[in-house]
Amino acid sequence: MDAPQYPDDCSLWRLISQVLGWGYFLAWSISFYPQVFLNRQLQSVVGLSLDFVYLNLWGFFCYSIYNVSFYASAKVRDAYRERWGSENLVRGNDVAFGLHAVGICAITLWQTIIYARDESQKLSAWAKNFIIVSALGGAVLAVSAYIGTTAVLDVLYYTSTVKMKQ
């Protein structure tokens, strides 16, 4: 299925897309802050799932690689256009959200290190293995793309699925 494209003569759709995209950015970005503020206020992360924190950071890191690559690389955009016959729809709000999410998740992870936590709060073997295996898979694909046996688009599609698979 081809990616949807804006009608050439309709800037209204672009405006609607931008307003909704930045609204999404604001709503989801704001949603990260109560946990950070609560952790700071309590000087504790007791009750916070370390699996959630680590997987969220890893997932948003992968999501950001995907979005930044599609947004900033003319080579990636050209490859997408060649494969699918349309423009990719990654916009500035997608990049901003991903990078903001990585930053705020890193702060939350830092809080799990510096604030009090229960002895039982540990990263599960499943989460640790998921991060390791998905990172190794990404590294293998990246090397494969570097030597020319895998398309860069396919490496980026892999990184985009990491966030969805967790």
Structure explained in plain terms:
By secondary structure, the chain is an all-alpha fold. Helices cover 76% and strands 0% of the residues. It has six helices and no strands. Helix 2 runs antiparallel to helix 4 and helix 2 runs antiparallel to helix 6 (152-165). The relative contact order is 0.17. The mean pLDDT is 92.
For the sheet with most strands, the description reads: none
**Cα Rg:** 19 Å
- Report the total helices: 6
| Secondary-structure class | mainly alpha
> Tally of extended strands?
0
Unreliable stretches covering 5 or more consecutive residues: none
Distance between the termini: 25 Å
* SSE sequence, one letter per element: HHHHHH
* Shape by Cα distribution: flat
Helix content: over 70%
Strand-residue fraction?
A: under 5%
Question: What number is the mean pLDDT?
Answer: 92
Helix and strand arrangement:
Layout: H1 11-42, H2 50-72, H3 74-84, H4 92-114, H5 125-147, H6 152-165
Helix pairs in contact: 1-4, 2-4, 2-6, 5-6
Write a brief caption for the model.
The protein is mostly helical and 166 residues long. Helix content is 76%, strand content 0%. It is flat and about 55 Å long.
Name its key features.
166 residues; 76% helix; 0% strand; single chain
